[in-house]
Write a structure and sequence with these properties.
Blueprint (H helix, E strand, L loop, with lengths): L2 E5 L8 E7 L9 E4 L11 E10 L5 E5 L2 E6 L2 H13 L6 E3 L3 E3 L2 E8 L7 H4 L9 E7 L2 H8 L6 E6 L2 E2 L6 H31 L11 E2 L4 H16 L7 H11 L4 E2 H14 L11 H8 L2 H16 L1
Parallel strand pairs: 1-6, 2-7
Antiparallel strand pairs: 1-12, 2-11, 3-4, 4-10, 5-6, 7-8, 9-10, 13-14
Helix pairs in contact: 4-7, 5-6, 5-8, 5-9, 7-9
Length: 313
Amino acid sequence: MRIVELILDEEQEIGIEAISVVENPAIEEDFIALKSQEFKLAEVDKEKRILMGALLIPNKPIYRRNGEDEYYIYFSKDTVLKASQMYLMQGKQNNSTLEHQYQINGLSLVESWIVEDKVHDKSVKYGMDLPLGTWVGAVKVNNDEIWNEFVKKGVVRGFSIEGYFADKMERPKDQTIKDELAAIEEAEAEYLLSEIRAIIKSDKRVKGGKKMILESYTDYPSGVSNNAKRGLELNEKVNNKCATQVGKVRAQQLAQGKAISVETIKRMYSYLSRAEEYYDENDTKACGTISYLLWGGKAGLRWANKKLKELDA
């Protein structure tokens, strides 16, 4: 079953239109009703009428069906963050619906944040275990009917957002991604060149004309070489239109099992970390996929990360 990433189309300034209170939230996270404990004479446990819960969880597959077409959608951490910001910037915190069908008044988003700490986040205090990057909200309910007939009776149990998103695979992306990947490669090449220049300059100052010996490594797994070979093959099929010369040279090195320096390992890790979002194993003609494989793919990212940690230790 295919998995589709949904993104924000910021040029059209569309995104989340409303927060809906529902019986079965798509993200499968119930909200909790918060109460205050105000000890004022005879007043005890006076209800605040505030609901707290996850509004959007990153990288969580959500089942969808359109006729006979079944698929999953998900949102990246970046999209979740942008969606939460745009919702407030556009002044939509009072937009609410019931089961995505009926517009209701009296519900307002009074708190909004992104989970950044699994231990100290406010949601932990209320027994919620949410992934990092989750958009959490607290909604004030100033609607007697909704509170008494739906919240208190357990008819609605969670939040569900509604709005407009674009299918990442539908946007005209090939040339854009190619340009972005090329820019990343050029930045990595420029950084590496500056390092080489610094080494050469440093070498000239060494008495006796000693040469600086750069450590290099060939212990990357076969998966790295195989990914590079695969990238070269796929690039050839599209007339080598993907990647800059830097990426093609890097692929040749890895495919042949040649030794690479520590600086190259750093560049591999940097490039693969930044370009990962453009990789789609199901789209073998896309430059994002091909360029990622040329640099060693996911196997390269894992190895580079592990190797750098070993070297630091």
